[in-house]
Amino acid sequence: MVDISVIIPTHNRAAMLRSLLGKLDAQRDGTPAFEVLVVADGCEDDTSTMLSSLRTRVPLRTLSLPGVGPALARNAGSQVASGRLLIFLDDDIEPGENFVRAHVVEHQRHPGGVVMGPYPPLPHIAKDRFRLSARAWWTRHFERVSRPGHQFAFTDVLTGNLSLEAELFHAMGGLDPQFARAREDFEFGLRLIKKGVPIRFAPDALGYHLEHQTATLTGKMVRRHQEGRSDALMARKHPDIQRLLEIHRFAGKKGRKKRLQRAMATRAGSVLDPLVKAGPRLLQMLEKAGLRRLYEKVERQLNGYHYLRGAAEVLGEDWRLPTDPTASTDEIDVLEINLDQGLEAAEAMLAERRPLAARIANGTVPVGDMCHQIGAEPWDARHLRPWLNRQAIHGYLPVALAEWQGQPINVPPQLSDFTLNTLNNPSFHAHMIEQHVQWMQAKLRSALYDNTSRS
Amino acid sequence: MRLAVRDIDILDLPPDFEPTADYQGALVLIRVAGRPCGQAVIAFDTDGGKTPIKDRILSAASSSVFEAWLRHRLALPDPSPAPSQLPKASVVICTRDRTEDLERCLTGLMAMPDKVDILVVDNAPSNEATRDLVGRFDTVRYLREPRPGLDVARNTALRNADADVVAFIDDDAVPDPLWLRTLLRNFEDPLVLAVTGLTMAAELETDAQIAFQHFGGFCRGFRRQVYDAHNLDPFTGWHAGAGVNMALRRTIVDAVGWFDEALDAGTLSLAGGDTDMFRRVLEAGYRIVYDPEALNWHRHRRSSKELQQQMYGYEVASLAILTKALLFERNPRALPRMVRSYIRLLRRLFQPRRTHQFSLPYNDALTQVRGAASGPVRYLRARARVVGAGHKRG
């Protein structure tokens, strides 16, 4: 009887799966015992022969399904898994040698939550626009999530590299099969957050994503279709987060452009589909010609079209989305926190009350509002300092400076408007202008700065 | 005009800040708890010393100082913590007949807490002075590259260094003690092929040096940046840094190729080898980190004539790179960029900017236009020479 199950849904990727299983077999010494459960979902290649001929030290089991999509495959895997801890892993990720252990250690440290690991793209030469933006999305996503003090939202949850206790997974009812091919992770994340399950990030549970072998421009268009479909379903299931979904922009009655877009998506498919099929080829041509702006414009249009076609599949002619009568922000309690007791006291208060929204002040000086974010976890102690440093820097910096300089509180020290405006602005141009302003403001007396001799 | 260059920690101000006789002011590098985080430009003695020096520095400090200070006060973790193991590195100095500067540079490298492999590449020297100097430092390796050209020397260094990372510093620059270590901590992300650092002016003794620093110098800001083709156009790769302060992963050669030997000092193209390398790194989808805490100090050109030559060289190089991309890499995006840069320069020539309150002893717009005009031809001729000699190209 093993305690940990690694569940891998797969579809026609025998070679990749083989190398993945090799990496799992070669986990670092000291890794607790685990089993691997491959859910072969509608595989028509030699996945099954590869699996039956494979010899591994780690116990390996296989489950075959007729092609039901990754969400159902994961659910089915969780049903037959024997471990108390489930680690879900995508078939296009190459796990590092510390992968399983890092998940387990994080669960031992903080039991009862959900742990996500990073799977940034495998480094390789990538020149085309599509590859670059896919890579940028993945790397930035994991950088953002791993920042200390990050407030997790449902859109941060990805099931490619995620672990939780089997008991919790079953109690949540697993993944919703309605979202079989897209957004099943966001939907699951939303339910986790609503239930108050803590989400953690374990940077050591690293795997490299072979997205350059699995993601293509054409595949992305198909995926946009699925995302449109799932977003429409999501808006119906969770009306409270409807505003955060892309589909919200297209719903509602008003706007000629909106109506036209919807009509095209619902009715003009037979005419437009063949044209749109040539989309990826057109994009490649635009890229070759160096027309980057046009490329981006066309890509946006194509993505939007596929998204709406997917949504139309669910919504049909009627694009009214249900609204949530309970989703009124007035009801939310705002916790008032005063910093004059010290930062530690404020942190303790946040940790104890875990509010959805808080108002921070220092004495009588307002510092800022920790606003309620729909679909995000409540505020906690670890959020406070990073929030002060980034979001509330304009409100908090004068307070902190006055305190440092030993002046009575409530007297904001002299910061120039320019300095205030460029706080947290990392751009190169902002730096160049700031530097120029610094030199000019110093009013150096010299022929070099004599602006009367030359206009 | 002369300005003092000061290096202070805002948490621990020196009592004797105010000036000595012939300096009109100071360029101040500001640190918070030892980490470089911003600058201030201060004119001395404008108010008879009534305002305390701390207030004057604070009111002239750049915004990044306040961010770093607040981060320190909130005890937030370092945004780029050092990994448990730094990669092995070699430090390379490409030099040519500048023993006085080189000695300062080597002394600075010796003062670093980390003991590393140091390699001096003597590029087409006119005498034995450099060899003799390096002989006095018994841990420094000496290599002679007879073919002239900074990029030729850089390639020789890459070929002869066996460490994972090769850090380059100019012979007229001096490293801060933690320079190398700070550069190296950024290599944990496998997508990072190059790391650049902050270069401050070592002295501001002449108008030319002050003008260069005011124009931006080698300073690329005080905030750490991670650049890739998604947030930085490869053609503006110079935003990421300069060759005076950069470290490259050795595998950069396999990923994007060697330095272009038809570019940079010692060739007709005059400059741009580093910019071209950064451009290719970004185009290949890899990343460059700019870490301002990796600090070194550069002695800028002292005379106006040298400054003018430098401005001319930068413009030549910028057009040389565009020419290369257009003609030899068939990159269609180079053409509109070329047209735009000519239009921008010509416009500057005929309508001097109002905000441009400088009076250099020569017409800087005209210098740049001349450089831009000769750039393409100079590159083609430099390239023909390289191909003729059978050298490596990037």
From TrEMBL, chain B:
Q: Which InterPro entries match?
A: Glyco_trans_2-like (IPR001173), Nucleotide-diphossugar_trans (IPR029044)
Q: Which Gene3D superfamilies match?
A: Spore Coat Polysaccharide Biosynthesis Protein SpsA, Chain A (3.90.550.10)
The record places domain Glycosyltransferase 2-like at: 90-254
| GO molecular function terms listed in the Swiss-Prot or TrEMBL record | glycosyltransferase activity
Q: What is its EC number?
A: 2.4.-.-
Could you confirm whether the keyword Flavoprotein appears in this record?
A: no
**Which top EC class is given?**
transferase
Instruction: Give the superkingdom in one word.
Output: Bacteria
UniProt KW keywords = Glycosyltransferase, Transferase
Write out the similarity annotation: Belongs to the glycosyltransferase 2 family.
Name assigned to this protein: Glycosyltransferase
- Organism encoding this protein: Rhizobium brockwellii
